[in-house]
Amino acid sequence: MKIRDLEVQTYLFVLLGSTLFVDKSRDRLRPAINVFLKDQRRVAGYAWGAAALTYLYRQLGMATRVGSKSICGCLTLLQAWIYEYFPLFRPSQILQAPDAPRASSWVCHRFAGGDDARQRLVRYRQMLDEMSGEDVSWTPYGRDAGTEVLRSLYTGVIRFADVAEGYDHARCRRQFGYRQTIPHTMMVPKDVYRPASCSTYIVFWEGNSANQYWES
């Protein structure tokens, strides 16, 4: 491998590991990322958005477990999603050029810790408890978001490396401008087991759908 190629691979490894696929170690990166960077001709063909969403879904699930005190993943994506759908929590917003990243329009401020932070937490929890459907901006991207971005209407499994998560647009049709109906049964893995010599579970999904939308 040429020095230039190695430098590019290292840069992408650090960039992706510190933005889209952040873990709780603070100063370490997931080695699985590097596997997809070795052939730089294929890097642009991967669906990195779907991969980041897959990884974030997994981290959100882990964050809800008893004893979990923190969360990781692409929290910039999560934070921008909150601002779009929940006006109660939006910071101020500035005008951006049409081709600028949408999330960069939010002007966020860093708050101090201590008693003020705890008081804000109590206030936010109360606001969440008192929210109703009227407090949600269901279609922040327009009422035709589903037809403009057809992949958002995909139903199946999205995947990044060894992480696979179900994605079903029908569970919240209102965000695409459609009338909400009773969604069909949630997708569940076909089989799950943990070998005696392994600390993680092996999950099997129906067919080969786990491979869909990893490469665009």
Automatic annotation (TrEMBL):
Pfam families: PMD (PF10536). InterPro entries: AminoTfrase-like_pln_mobile, MAIN-like. It comes from the Eukaryota. GO terms for biological process: meristem maintenance. Residues 5-186 form the Aminotransferase-like plant mobile domain. PANTHER family: PROTEIN MAIN-LIKE 2, PROTEIN MAINTENANCE OF MERISTEMS-LIKE. This is Aminotransferase-like plant mobile domain-containing protein. It comes from Linum tenue.
